[in-house]
Design a protein that fits this description.
The structure holds two protein chains of two kinds. Chain A is mainly alpha-helical. Chain A has three helices and no strands. Chain B is extended. The chains are: A mainly alpha, B mainly alpha.
Chain lengths: ~100, ~220
């Protein structure tokens, strides 16, 4: 398969993730959609690595996975803290910091 | 054969992504993301990235998703109500515009590298040996920074999710149970630490095992 096909799939996944971040209200699902966007970036990084025949893109993809894991840990910790304070788990209700 | 596999994996990845966004129950969203991640690992294998595909399945679909499932089970998967905000309608339109723009940019560029099949395959491309050599030579600094980042994230998660004293109101039952008078040598931590030594050395006239304070509501309150 040509590299362009992989890039198209990656673009579609990224847009689906962006639509999810804009539409959903549960912070858990917003985190999942962020994962989708990061994975789309990973797919295009690996496609470019295949295109050039060098492994640097795969190294970048692994670093992106590390960053995604960190983001998940901190995000889920925040959600658990929100739940402990008995606040509503809804990004529209949590607007105390809104200017 | 590789084309068939590509289309199966691509349909799985895009369908899983749609499932994450569309399904109302967060638990099903997590399961759809697992499908998406495994299909994506198949795409990585087609791109000859063996080590990244294995890491994707083990780390992402195995470990991170278990974390998600635990948190969804802890918090409870409440069905969210359909909102009427303007962003709910405009969001998919923005995303569709972005998708069309990206597809035009990718498919209309007519670059040789994109329309080709990639560089010729060399033996050992994408194996753990090559990736590990890159990590320990050229990308040593990002590797160390990544490990530091993981440690900071772990500590941050513990600090965020731990049970704080002081933010919530004081737990009166718990305080009462700790400070209730108690006969000597019944094995409290305060005795072991020696903070109640003076108290326990004094002879107690009524060494009854029942606390003399308010009746414990757990025991029926007789």
């Amino acid at each position: 398969m040509a590299i362009g096909w992989y890039l198209t799939v990656s673009a579609l996944i990224f847009c689906i993730g962006a639509a999810g971040v804009l539409t959903r209200r549960n912070p858990l699902v917003i985190l999942l959609c962020l994962e989708l966007m990061l994975n789309a970036a990973n797919l295009s990084l690996i496609a470019f690595s295949r295109m050039w025949g060098r492994e640097d893109g795969q190294v970048f993809a692994l670093i992106v996975m590390v960053v995604a894991a960190c983001e998940v840990t901190v995000g889920l910790g925040l959600i658990v803290a929100i739940y402990r304070r008995q606040l509503p788990i809804d990004v529209d209700e949590l607007n105390e910091l809104q200017g | 054969m590789s084309q068939v596999l590509f289309f199966i994996a691509a349909i799985g990845a895009i369908g899983g992504a749609f499932g994450v966004v569309i399904l109302r129950n967060p638990f099903y969203s997590v399961l759809a993301l697992v499908v998406h991640l495994i299909s994506l690992a198949a795409l990585f294998l087609l791109l000859r990235a063996e080590f990244v595909a294995a890491a994707q399945v083990i780390v992402y679909a195995g470990a991170v998703m278990v974390l998600y499932v635990f948190v969804v089970a802890y918090v409870g998967s409440g069905e969210e109500l359909a909102g009427g905000s303007a962003l709910r309608i405009l969001g998919p339109i923005f995303a569709l515009a972005l998708a069309i723009e990206l597809c035009i940019a990718i498919l209309g560029s007519a670059l040789k590298g994109i329309s080709g099949k990639g560089a010729p395959y060399l033996l050992g491309f994408g194996t753990p040996a090559h990736i590990g050599r890159l990590f320990l030579t050229r990308y040593l600094f990002p590797f160390e920074v990544a490990s530091l980042l993981l440690m900071v994230a772990a500590i941050g998660a513990v600090v965020l999710a731990r049970r704080r004293r002081g933010l919530e109101g004081p737990d009166e039952q718990f305080e009462e149970r700790i400070s209730a008078p108690r006969p000597a040598y019944t094995g409290t931590l305060a005795e072991a630490a020696g903070t109640r030594a003076a108290e326990s050395a004094a002879p107690e006239p009524d060494a009854e095992p029942v606390t003399t304070g308010a009746p414990n509501p757990d025991q029926g309150g007789w």
